[in-house]
Amino acid sequence: MANVLSARQRKAIGMLWRFVMPYHWRVLGALLALLFTAAITLFMGQGIKLLVDQGLATQSAAMLNRSIGLFGLLVLCLAVGIFARFYLVSWIGERFVADIRMRVFNHLLELDPGFYETNRSAEIQSRLTADTTLLQTVLGSSLSMALRNALLLIGAGILLVITNLKLSIIVLAALPLVIVPILFFGRRVRRLSRLSQDRVADVGSYTSEVLGQIKTVQAYNHQAQDRRLFSAVVEQAFGTARQRIAQRAWLMTLVIVLVLGAVGVMLWVGGMDVISGRISAGELAAFVFYSLLVGSAFATLSEVIGELQQAAGAAERIAELLQARSQISAPVQACLQLPARVSGRISLEAVRFAYPTRLDRLAIDGLSLSVEPGETLALVGPSGAGKSTLFDLLLRFFDPQQGRILLDGLPLTRLNPHQLRRCFALVAQSPALFFGSVADNIRYGKPMASATEVEAAAQAAHAHDFIMELPEGYQTHLGDAGLGLSGGQRQRLAIARALLVDAPILLLDEATSALDAQSERLIQQALPRLMRGRTTLVIAHRLATVQNADRIAVIEQGKLIAIGNHQQLLASCPLYARLAALQFADGQP
To answer: Is the pLDDT of residue 1 over 50?
Structure first.
């Protein structure tokens, strides 16, 4: 296998092997069962020899009974060994896939958002499901078959030589002829296996993307184009799989022809020796049995090697995920500790930042800004000005390329991200809801919150009334992403979730944009009480919602253009005055 697998694949498989090592006793038991069954299978050749030479050739009923009894005992032992081997190997395979899925998922949860900008989530999901399932199949079946047949090949080869050296030379001469196509086709199968898995991942990615946006697909009557595009993706996957299957079929065909051809020649030579009396019929029968073991072992190995090549590709793809490192992590040395509850003072000092996929365009360009504890600061400006990017930086989803951000005087880069994020409560413009009950979604940031606390947060967010109208109230299960709720209802649940966390800093990204007029008015009435004692940053395109903020920061193209209250900015900032004039001219309050 060392020549069949690349160095990177061997490293990946070695890493995955460490997942099996905690169960070394079961692995040892499976190996012993494997050795036991292989030994019994090999010993059956001697049983066949005794049956022919001492049971049939002597025409003795007693000898026949003894030979049949020995053969029956071997069959019983073989059955016990097969049961133990199958159970242990299958258990190891299932336990392995469960452990690795948990490990990969836990690792993915800690990777920074930048990783998901350059990697499709649907493809990652394919690696977590399809690739791990393939590894489970190989570890729970194919690898056992490979080891078993390798043992049979070695053992039967030795017994062939012991039984009859002349006939053994004929069979063993065919081995180099078999090894050459295995190595030749094996390299092709390995490459095509990786490509095939990538194409299957593309199918899953496209399916997830289209079905996840099914309303948009149907609203624009895009079904015909999606059928055409999906057909092209599927056909590409099929084409790659067809090439892989053809290579494996050629490999198996050549192995069978060469090995069984050698067995045929051996039978002719051996038959002539039996006729001439040079060997006994039992010796030839045993030799035929061992020859068939060698042939079947080689044929099975040639097939299993293809599956192992696929497993190597799957292991490599999973290893890539496990080897990915988050760009955002707690400092190894000099990690600072935040107090139990921060005051909420935020400072940005000459911050410059560009997203990893758009390094040539600064999202934040030399921005400096200070927010005092308990202050409400509104961020306004055109779309794409960098307002939401500031929230990403505050939550340390990304680190700025230049400058620094401080919380209560402590640089964010010297804080543990988990400790940092417990200081914030976020209400995004497009609220994220998860499959589960209404109560589960509200207590998402505080899993141990009581039902009373959940209800109080919902009432403060003016969500209680519509929740009680749902079929099972707070225990009503939501569809994916809150399917079945209006935009305003989803937004109010997200606000209730943020309120329940009771963090010292509140981040509102267009938090009322999806609310109807009545709900927005109720939320606006409640906001002063909800923000009391918290540092609050509010992103708003509708200036009427932030007129009462302590200060308003105007941002354009990642730069701070002006800062002040509503009246000051109307007089001193042309951009703000223009935005206000446009909105108020449209009749907005």
So the answer is: no
398-410 per-position pLDDT tens digit: 999 999 999 999 9
- Bridge partner list, 520: none
- In angstroms, the CA 536 to CA 508 distance is 8
DSSP 367: E
Tell me which range, 31-45, 121-135, 479-493, is most confidently predicted by mean pLDDT: 31-45
Say yes or no: 60 and 166 in one domain: yes
- The residue segments making up the domain with residue 286 are 9-205+239-323
Residue with tokens 């029956």: 72
Q: Which long-range contacts (CB under 8 A, 24 or more apart) does 544-548 make?
A: 544/583, 544/588, 544/589, 545/512, 545/520, 546/378, 546/380
> 414 and 334 in contact (C-beta within 8 Å)?
yes
Query: What gap in Å lies between CA 107 and CA 127, rounded to an integer?
Result: 13
Residue 476 is encoded by which pair of tokens?
């009503």
The answer, yes or no, to whether residue 479 has pLDDT greater than 90, is no
Q: What is the C-alpha radius of gyration for the chain, rounded to an integer number of angstroms?
A: 35
Whole-number Å distance between alpha carbons of 393 and 352: 11
Domain count for the chain, please give it: 2
Which domain-ending residue is among 297, 323, 349?
A: 323
Residue type, 316: E
Max Cα separation, the chain? 119
Note the pLDDT of residue 537: 92
**CATH value at residue 197:** 1.20.1560.10
pTM of the model as a whole: 0.70
Q: Are residues 163 and 277 in the same domain?
A: yes
Domain-terminating residue out of 301, 323, 345 = 323
- Say if residue 108 is in the same domain as residue 170: yes
CATH code for the domain of 403: 3.40.50.300
**H-type helices in 324-431, by residue range?**
387-394, 417-421
- For residue 149, the SS3 value is helix
Report how far Cα 228 is from the mean position of its chain's Cα atoms: 28
